Amino acid sequence: MVQRVLSGIVLTVFMAAIVVFDRIFPLALNIAVAVISVAAVHELASALGLQKKLFLLLPSMAAAAAVPFCNEEFQFLTYCLYTLIVFSALIVYHHETTFKEVAVLYSMVVIIPCALHTLVSLRELNRGHGMFYVLIAVLSAWVADVGAYFAGTLFGKHKLCPEISPKKTIEGLIGGTVVDVLVMLLCGVWFSAVFYRGAVEVNYLALFLIGFFGSFISVLGDLSFSIIKRSCHIKDFGQVIPGHGGVLDRFDSVIFAVPFVYLLVTFLPLAGV
């Protein structure tokens, strides 16, 4: 548990640093998204046993690295090129791989970088307060996970999905949701009253909705990648983050939560002067 808490603190400080230094070095967010995407794709390929099949691994990692730096048009072109390369490789190396392997890897290379690239889109959605949007999106997923972990440890009795994730409980889900809502509202108070000294109005309804629904969506992301781990007969995607596992183990909920936050704040902006 100590390793898990310390790793969580380090990751939070890392994200906070990106937020603080955004105006000095705005590419920091793009680079962070690219690194996370590449690491996640590599972990997934390893879980599928494809780490030595470079004809699939290298173009997949290259596409994951490129997407966070592309606008919508270049993202489309990147995936068109990636599609041509991967399916050409499937034809040439059809004796060494299967369509099922290629299909799973291909779908994840599309989903993971695009979902995480939504963090960059969130920043661009509101250049004045965009990094507040980014911080809220990531925190909503992580806080829900941490809240569910501690609530489940202390009060968990009824299993949520025992065949997929034996440790998850209904009490943990409820506790994570309550904690997430409270933290989102507190972030709004800090942003408005402390950071901007009341000069910026915060949409607390939007923050409540992010905390409430974001918690459920985060669990959905966690369970979705748990199914992949079970089908690959592994416990974690990696060991790069002590107490958490791999990059995908830490960002699985973020991958699902961030697009939801983007969709919500498109209609209900979090902040306005």
From TrEMBL:
<keyword id="KW-1133">Transmembrane helix</keyword>
<feature type="transmembrane region" description="Helical">
    <location>
        <begin position="254"/>
        <end position="272"/>
    </location>
</feature>
<keyword id="KW-0594">Phospholipid biosynthesis</keyword>
<dbReference type="GO" id="GO:0004605">
    <property type="term" value="F:phosphatidate cytidylyltransferase activity"/>
</dbReference>
<dbReference type="Pfam" id="PF01148">
    <property type="entry name" value="CTP_transf_1"/>
</dbReference>
<feature type="transmembrane region" description="Helical">
    <location>
        <begin position="102"/>
        <end position="120"/>
    </location>
</feature>
<keyword id="KW-0472">Membrane</keyword>
<feature type="transmembrane region" description="Helical">
    <location>
        <begin position="132"/>
        <end position="152"/>
    </location>
</feature>
<keyword id="KW-1208">Phospholipid metabolism</keyword>
<dbReference type="GO" id="GO:0005886">
    <property type="term" value="C:plasma membrane"/>
</dbReference>
<comment type="pathway">
    <text>Lipid metabolism.</text>
</comment>
<feature type="transmembrane region" description="Helical">
    <location>
        <begin position="76"/>
        <end position="95"/>
    </location>
</feature>
<feature type="transmembrane region" description="Helical">
    <location>
        <begin position="173"/>
        <end position="196"/>
    </location>
</feature>
<comment type="pathway">
    <text>Phospholipid metabolism; CDP-diacylglycerol biosynthesis; CDP-diacylglycerol from sn-glycerol 3-phosphate: step 3/3.</text>
</comment>
<keyword id="KW-0443">Lipid metabolism</keyword>
<keyword id="KW-1003">Cell membrane</keyword>
<keyword id="KW-0444">Lipid biosynthesis</keyword>
<dbReference type="GO" id="GO:0016024">
    <property type="term" value="P:CDP-diacylglycerol biosynthetic process"/>
</dbReference>
<keyword id="KW-0812">Transmembrane</keyword>
<feature type="transmembrane region" description="Helical">
    <location>
        <begin position="202"/>
        <end position="225"/>
    </location>
</feature>
<comment type="similarity">
    <text>Belongs to the CDS family.</text>
</comment>
<feature type="transmembrane region" description="Helical">
    <location>
        <begin position="5"/>
        <end position="21"/>
    </location>
</feature>
<feature type="transmembrane region" description="Helical">
    <location>
        <begin position="27"/>
        <end position="47"/>
    </location>
</feature>
<keyword id="KW-0548">Nucleotidyltransferase</keyword>
<protein>
    <recommendedName>
        <fullName>Phosphatidate cytidylyltransferase</fullName>
        <ecNumber>2.7.7.41</ecNumber>
    </recommendedName>
</protein>
<keyword id="KW-0808">Transferase</keyword>
<dbReference type="InterPro" id="IPR000374">
    <property type="entry name" value="PC_trans"/>
</dbReference>
